[in-house]
Write a structure and sequence with these properties.
By secondary structure, the chain is an alpha+beta fold. Helices cover about 25% and strands about 20% of the residues. The protein has seven helices and ten strands.
């Protein structure tokens, strides 16, 4: 499916193409079955050094990656979902908590331009391999001066076990945090603990809200994307009373054999059934249909 929604953001990104390092990554795939692809090549929107740093630190920052009309389209789409799901948009029905909508591709076509968004997808393929799927698009909205702030350290992909079985599959996935609003001291920063995605045997400090040794605080303009390994410790710092509503989209990637995100309730009459039906095989694989199993 090569619709305007799936390609327009990539087309608009061409103006930024030369601002990023690139390299070509070619995978030779060892297969035993006839008819399976043996070669897959990708233009990666990152240098090899950046990919190595991502693997080491567990995160990669792309400041102001999405700007102008595409950024406004994503803001409008999320605001319209918010208006449809809540009687008021000021957080009063949330009892002072963040709002976390899920299955956004099912709910609004304005998000579909992220489905084949090469600046993120190509990096996912560089670190996860040639067989990549989207697990879900969700969001988190933080409101100024909330009584309850979800700011404890956490990660998105638990699942380690002790003792570790001989054939244990270390869980690898990526979460791309696309900030639709500025990350600043008033709105709240993102704090990350570099390298903690590699600490397989270390217990996560679940009730820890304070600073950790070696943490990095990320300040960035609207439209910034922070790509995180699913096991990286991180936390959102509070949105103060003087700040503004902070909207972040969470685009998750995993290998094709990983199930879709189990959280949230899928809409009965969502938009994606038609998108998948009309999509080409490569896009269907990206959306969780077919692909390497």
């Amino acid at each position: 499916m090569e619709t305007k929604e799936l390609t327009s953001l990539n087309d608009l990104m061409q103006a930024k193409y030369d601002a990023y390092a690139h390299h070509t990554l070619s995978y030779h795939i060892l297969v035993n079955n006839e008819g399976q692809d043996r070669e897959r090549s990708f233009d990666v929107w990152a240098s090899q050094d950046e990919i190595e740093a991502f693997a080491r630190d567990g995160y990669l920052v792309r400041k102001a990656l999405i700007e102008g009309e595409p950024l406004e389209r994503l803001r409008r789409a999320l605001d319209e979902v918010e208006e449809a799901e809540f009687e008021t948009a000021d957080g009063s029905r949330l009892q002072g908590r963040d709002w976390i909508p899920r299955y956004l591709f099912e709910k609004h076509a304005g998000f579909h331009m992220l489905i084949k968004f090469e600046p993120l997808l190509s990096v996912a393929r560089a670190v996860l391999g040639p067989f990549v799927r989207i697990r879900q698009l969700a969001a988190r909205v933080s409101y100024p001066g909330q009584e309850v702030q979800f700011t404890r350290w956490h990660h998105h992909q638990p699942g380690m076990a002790e003792p570790t079985p001989p054939f244990f599959a270390f869980p690898h996935k990526l979460d791309c945090l696309i900030y639709l609003d500025e990350l600043n001291d008033a709105n709240g920063l993102l704090a990350v603990a570099p390298g903690t995605h590699l600490d397989a045997g270390e217990e996560l400090p679940l009730e820890e809200h304070g600073a950790l040794a070696g943490q990095e605080e990320i300040r960035a303009p609207a439209g910034t994307c922070v790509m995180l390994h699913g096991n990286l410790w991180h936390r959102a710092m509070p949105t103060g009373a003087e700040g503004k509503k902070r909207r972040v989209l969470i685009l998750s990637y995993g290998p094709t054999w990983m199930r879709s995100s189990p959280f949230g309730e899928k809409p009965e009459n969502g938009l994606m059934a038609k998108v998948i039906e009309e999509a080409d095989p490569a896009t269907q694989e990206l959306l969780g249909v077919g692909g390497y199993q």
